Amino acid sequence: MKKLILPALCALASLPSTAFAQSNATSVSSRTNSHATGNDAIAAMRDAAMESDTLAYAITEGLTTEIGPRLAGTEAEARARAWGVARLTALGFSNVAIETYQMPTWIRGAETAEIVSPYPQAMHVTALGRSASTGDSGIRAEIVAFETVEQLRAAPMSSLDGKIVYVGHHMMRTQDGSGYGFAGPARWFAASLASERGAAAIVIRSVGTDNHRNPHTGGTNWAEGVSPIPAGALSNPDADNLERMVALGRPVTMHLTLTPQWLGDRESGNVIADIPGSDPDAPMIIAACHLDSWDLATGAFDDAAGCGIITAAAHRILESGAQPRRTIRLLWAGAEEVGLFGARAYAERHPAAEHAVASESDFGADRVWRVEFNLPDSASGDADRITSLLAPLGIPRSPIPATGGADTSPLVAGGVWAIDLQQDGTRYFDLHHTPDDTLDKIDPAQMRQNVAAWTVMLSVMSNSQADLGIPQTTE
Amino acid sequence: MKKLILPALCALASLPSTAFAQSNATSVSSRTNSHATGNDAIAAMRDAAMESDTLAYAITEGLTTEIGPRLAGTEAEARARAWGVARLTALGFSNVAIETYQMPTWIRGAETAEIVSPYPQAMHVTALGRSASTGDSGIRAEIVAFETVEQLRAAPMSSLDGKIVYVGHHMMRTQDGSGYGFAGPARWFAASLASERGAAAIVIRSVGTDNHRNPHTGGTNWAEGVSPIPAGALSNPDADNLERMVALGRPVTMHLTLTPQWLGDRESGNVIADIPGSDPDAPMIIAACHLDSWDLATGAFDDAAGCGIITAAAHRILESGAQPRRTIRLLWAGAEEVGLFGARAYAERHPAAEHAVASESDFGADRVWRVEFNLPDSASGDADRITSLLAPLGIPRSPIPATGGADTSPLVAGGVWAIDLQQDGTRYFDLHHTPDDTLDKIDPAQMRQNVAAWTVMLSVMSNSQADLGIPQTTE
User: Fold this and answer.
1) TM spans, by residue (chains A, B) (predicted)?
2) Which residue intervals of chain A bear CATH 3.50.30.30?
3) B214 and chain A: CB distance < 8 Å anywhere?
4) Of the candidates A213, A200, A306, A305, which has an alpha carbon nearest to the alpha carbon of residue A258?
5) Which of A258, B157, B248, B316 has the highest local Cβ count within 10 Å?
6) Which of the residues B71, B121, B443 would you substitute to probe the A interface, choosing the one with the greatest number of A C-beta atoms within 10 Å?
7) Per-position pLDDT tens, chain A of length 475
C-alpha cells in the first residue's frame, strides 16, 4: 500500500503546486495570494516540507536514541522534558517552559508466565498499567478462558474464585483505527470484571494486530470499589498457543508472576513553546503531542513522531518570518499514556477560552489520509482553503466531524474547536504499546507528508480572521 | 511474492497432472506408468498432497503446542521424543525407536543489557549458545564498536582489554539463504576473536533480517585455547540504536548481564522410523529433520515443520500400499542446533553404506523453489523423472549440486548421495532462532507444496533401480 501510494504522492508534490492550488481554490486565492501567508506561500512551504523535511525525523531520532523509553513520572520522562526545552529553545521558539504537576506513578516489575501443565512451556507476557502484583512467588492457577468480554461479563459473580481468567478476542486491522474500539474493552474493562467475579489474576490476548512475541501493554481500569488483581497481556502467538491448549480439553494451569509497584506521587510535566501571534487578543492555535511513552520501547510511533511532526511544521512557519496573527502553541504533554495527567494539568492552568483550535498528532508517522473539521460556520472559508491546499498531498476532506486528541480533550470538552489530520492506522496497532515501537518503524517519506499537511493547517488557521471564540451556550 | 505465486501454483496443481507429466517425461513414462509406482500414481499422490495435506501442519501444531521449545539435552527435548514415537507409531511406521546419546548441555539464564551512559535505556539481548556467564552482577564496561568481523580481526591483541565489543553488520535478505554465509561469521567467530584481544564480553547485531525486538540466538564457537567470554546478540532495532549512540561520539557504557550455565553431560536422542523396503539388500533413502529447537520459541519453522513435511510425504507412500523397493527412513534428529550431536550419533551407529540417498528439510515451511541433485550417472533417469514430476509444482532443476543437510552431513561426508529440495528462504532469517518462530508463521498452502515435492522425490528414489552404492575411491 505504502509503496504504491508514495510515488504518486511524490510525483504530485514535485509538480508546480500552483497547478493544483489555483484550480482547486480559486475562490480563496484572490484574497490570500497577495502576501506571505497567501496560498502560494503556503503551498511552497508545504512542498518544501514534502520534499526535504528532516526536522521531524531528527526530533524522533533524538528522543528515541538519547532518551529512550519515557514512562510518566520517571527520571527518563524528566530527561525528555529537559531535552525538549533545549531543542525547542535552540529552534527559536518563544516562552519555552516546563509546567510540572504531581501524579501517582506505577512501574513495571518482573513478568513471566509459564504453562505448568499439561504442556509445560514459557509464554511472553507483560503487565497492564495499574496491574496489581502477584508477589515474587507468583500465582499458580487453572485458566478459565473466555472468547469475548461479553462472555466474561455473563459469568456469575464468584464463579471464577481463584482462577486465572483468559480473555481472547481478535483485533481487526483497520485504516481508521476502529479495531481499537472493538478489541480495546478487553484491556480496559476485563480485569475489573474478572476481579469482581473472584479471579486471582487475568491474562488477555494483546490488543494488537501483529503476530510477534511482543505483548502490548496499556492501562487497565478498575471500577469503583473493585480490588485490583494482577493483569497481563500475552503476545498474539502465545494467545494462539494457549487457545489451542484449551481446545485440547484438559485443564491448563499457568504460573503467572507480575510484580509491578506504585511509587506514590511523583513529578511529571508538560513542555510548551510558542510562536507569538501579532494579535494578542486572538485566541491561539494549539498543536499537541505527548512526550511520555510506555516503558517497553522508545516510543517512536507513540508519540515522539507526533512531537517531531507538529514541531517541524511550526518551525517552517517560524522560519518563514511571516508572523501569524494568532499564537501557535506547541504542547508536548506529559503523562498521557497513564491517564491524561498532562492534559488535565494544562487545562487547569490555561483556560479553554485562550484557545481557538486544538489539533494533535498521536497516531504514528504514516501518511495523513483525510482531514476532519469541527469549526464554526464563520470559518468555513478556512476549512475550504485547507482542503484545497491538502489536495495535492492526496488528502481528502472527511465528512466526519473532528473530535481532537487525548491531550487537548479537556480543552475540546470546554468548547475549543478542533481539526484532525487523521493518519493511516493500518499498521499502527502492530506496534502500539509494544517493545517494537522503535525508530526503524518510521517511514521518512510518510513523515514528511505529515509535516507538509500540518504546515498547511497551522499556516491557514493561525492567520484565520474568523470568530473562533468558544460558543456561548444559551439555556 | 507469496501471494502472487501461490495462486499460480494452485492453478497448476488443479490441472490434470498427466498433461504435464506426459509431455515432460515421455522418455520415462513408458517403463514406469504401468504399476502403482508409475508416474501417474506419483502425480496423483503429489496432487493430493498439494490439495489437502493436513498431516505436516498437524505434526507442527502438535510439537509447538503440546511440547513447545525443545532445547537439546533438556526434559522438553525428551518429551518431544516420546511424543514423536507415539505419533510415528500411530501413523503406522515400522521400527520406530529412540536412539540416545550423551551430550554437554548448556542452558540460558538471565539476560539484560542496559546503556548506563550517556543515554540510559534498556536493550533487548539474548545469550549466544556456549556463551560464558557474566555472573549475577553483570559486567559494566565501555563499548568498542566494529562494523565488520574483519575490522575486529584487524584489532591488535590485548587492544580491547576489559571492553565490551560490539560487532555490527547487516544481513541481506536473500532467497537462497546466502546472506547467512555473509553475516553468520559475526555470530560464529567474533566472540572468540574478541576474547583473544582481551575483551570482557561481546554483543553482536543479531544475524537476522527482521526489525523486531527479538534477538537471534545461535551457537558461537571458541577457537582452541581461547577462554569463553559472555557473548550476546542485540535485536536489530537495539543494534541500530547503539550504532546511533556510538556515532554521536561520546563514550557509551553498557551494563551486560548474561548468566547461562553448563549442566554437564545429559541425555539427548534421535527418533527413527521406517517404511521397510522390499529389497533388504538395497541401500535405503533417508529423510531427515531435527526435533530439537532453540529455547526462545516453539521452533515451528526450525524445525518442527521439517519433521512434519518429511513425515507427511512418507506417510502418503505408506498409505498407498505400494511397498517401495528401498527402505525409507525418517530421522528426527536430536541436538542439531547445539552442534550436530544427533547427526554424529546416528552416523556412528548406522554405517554410511546402508544409505543410498540423504535428504533433509530444515529451512522453514515456505515453498520449494528448486531441486538439486548429487547422484551417480546411473541415476540420471531418476533425476530426470523427479524433475518432470516437480515441474507442475513450479520447481525447476538447479545447476547447483546437492550437498545435503546438517543432520545427514556425516553420511554425505561418507559418500552417501544427496538430493536437496531447496526452500525459499526470503523470510527465513526474520524468524531464525528468535522468539518469533511460532506456528502462526507457517503458511499451510506453501507447506502442502513441500509435502507434494517430497512425495515425488521419495517415491521415485525409493523405487530406483540405479546403483546408488557409495563409490569406491581408487588410490
Assistant:
1) none
2) 109-262
3) yes
4) A200
5) A258
6) B121
7) 233 333 333 333 333 333 333 333 334 443 444 466 899 999 999 999 999 999 999 999 999 999 999 999 999 999 999 999 999 999 999 999 999 999 999 999 999 999 999 999 999 999 999 999 999 999 999 999 999 999 999 999 999 999 999 999 889 999 999 999 999 999 999 999 999 999 999 999 999 999 999 999 999 999 999 999 999 999 999 999 999 999 999 999 999 999 999 999 999 999 999 999 999 999 999 999 999 999 999 999 999 999 999 999 999 999 999 999 999 999 999 999 999 999 999 999 999 999 999 999 999 999 999 999 999 999 999 999 999 999 999 999 999 999 999 999 999 999 999 999 999 999 999 999 999 999 999 999 999 999 999 999 999 999 999 999 998 764 4
The gap from C-alpha B191 to its chain's centroid, in whole angstroms, comes to 23
Q: Does the CB of A463 have a partner CB in chain B at under 8 Å?
A: no
Q: Which residue type, as a one-letter code, is found at position B16?
A: P
Contact B310, B135 (CB under 8 A): no
User: Strand B164-167 to strand B201-205: parallel, antiparallel, or no bridges (unpaired)?
Assistant: parallel
Contact B68 A240 (CB under 8 A): no
| Residue keyed to cell 495527567 | A341
Taking an 8 Å cut-off on Cβ atoms, the answer to whether A439 and B248 are in contact is no
A214 reaches B (C-beta below 8 A): yes
Count the neighbouring beta carbons within 10 Å of the beta carbon of residue A404.
Answer: 24
Q: How far apart are CA A174 and CA A179, in angstroms?
A: 6
Cα three-residue angle A416-A418-A424, rounded to 5 degrees: 155
Q: CA A296, CA A435: separation in Å to the nearest integer?
A: 5
- Distances in Å between the Cα of B421 and the Cα atoms of B6, B9, B289, B452 are 17, 16, 13, 11
Residues of chain B in contact with residue A236, where contact means CB-CB under 8 angstroms, are 440
Gap between the Cα atoms of B121 and B124, Å rounded? 10
CB atoms within 10 A of CB A387: 18
CA distance B111 to B227: 20
Q: Of the candidates B124, B436, B438, which has its C-beta nearest A435's C-beta?
A: B124
B380-390 vs B39-52: helix crossing angle, rounded to 10: 40
Q: How far apart are CA B18 and CA B11, in angstroms?
A: 14
Tell me: cis bond preceding A118? Omega within 30 of 0 counts. yes
Third-level CATH fold of A109-262: Glucose Oxidase; domain 1 (3.50.30)
CB-based contact, B112 to chain A, within 8 Å: no
Amino acid at the residue B334: G
Q: Does B65 touch chain A (CB under 8 A)?
A: yes
Model-level pTM?
0.90
CATH 3.40.630.10 fits B2-101+267-462, yes or no: yes
The SS3 assignment for B347 reads helix
Closest CA to A231 of A197, A184, A264, A194: A194
